[in-house]
Amino acid sequence: MTALLAELNAQVHRDHPQVTLLEVRELDDPVVAHFPDSLGMQVTGYWRGY
Questions:
Q1: Which among 8, 5, 49, 9 is positioned nearest to 27, based on CA atoms?
Q2: How many C-beta atoms lie closer than 10 Å to residue 5's C-beta?
Q3: In a domain, 48, yes or no
Q4: Residue-level pLDDT at 15
Q5: Computed over its alpha carbons, how large is the radius of gyration of the chain?
Q6: pLDDT by residue (tens digit) across 5-44?
Q7: Does the residue 29 lie in any domain?
Q8: Domains in the chain: how many in total?
Q9: I need a surface site. Which of 5, 33, 36, 48 has the fewest CB within 10 A?
């Protein structure tokens, strides 16, 4: 999963360098939650639905 998201991030960066935000809703999945750290990305906020 991390490799897929890493490639998505790279593709977006190549094709759309003006993009500065990539939103990922992890839904408490530990694999996806590890994704930002593994790419040197930073969590800038959390989304909550009630």
A1: 49
A2: 19
A3: no
A4: 96
A5: 11
A6: 788 888 988 999 998 887 777 667 777 777 777 777 777 7
A7: yes
A8: 1
A9: 48
Q: Look up residue 12 and give its amino acid.
A: V
Query: Of the candidates 16, 15, 14, 32, which has an alpha carbon nearest to the alpha carbon of residue 24?
Result: 32
DSSP string, the chain: -HHHHHHHHHHHHHH-TT--------TT-HHHHHHHHHTT----------
Token representation of residue 3: 């490799």
Report if residue 16 sits inside a domain: yes
Per the domain annotation, does 20 fall within a domain? yes
CB 50 within 8 Å of CB 21: no
- Confidence (pTM): 0.51
Domain span at 25? 2-38
The pLDDT, as a whole number, for residue 14 is 94
